[in-house]
Amino acid sequence: MISFFTVVNDEVHAWTIPRGSLSPQAGGAVHGDIERGFIRAEVMRYEDLIALGDEQKVKAAGKLMVKGKDAEIFDGDVIHFLFKV
Fold first, then answer.
1. Residue 65, pLDDT above cutoff 90
2. Which of the 8 DSSP states describes residue 84?
3. Among 20, 43, 46, 56, which one is most buried in terms of CB atoms within 10 A?
4. CB of 71 closer than 8 Å to CB of 23
């Protein structure tokens, strides 16, 4: 099992999924609609976020990754899911 994080405003939530899960399945751990309507996941590594200080600095450093449906999620990923249902 691995854990990934979602952040909404000042609230951080950790989610646990099986190792090897793909982006849509990780979204499904949050809510079934995310898996069903998955578009993409914007992902940053926890280590990058801590080292750089905030999301904007991670983006500016070019360390924000955009992952599609076939991308594996890794332990410590911080994810923003984009979806439409």
1. yes
2. -
3. 43
4. yes
Q: How many domains does the chain have?
A: 1
* Domain that residue 16 falls in: 2-83
Residue 6 identity: T
Q: What pTM did the predictor assign?
A: 0.91
Q: How far, in Å, are 8, 11, 35, 52 from residue 22 at the CA level?
A: 21, 24, 10, 26
DSSP state of 54: S
Indicate which CATH number applies to the domain containing 61: 3.10.20.30
Residue 57 sits at the vertex; the CA angle it makes with 26 and 16, to the nearest 5 degrees, is 20
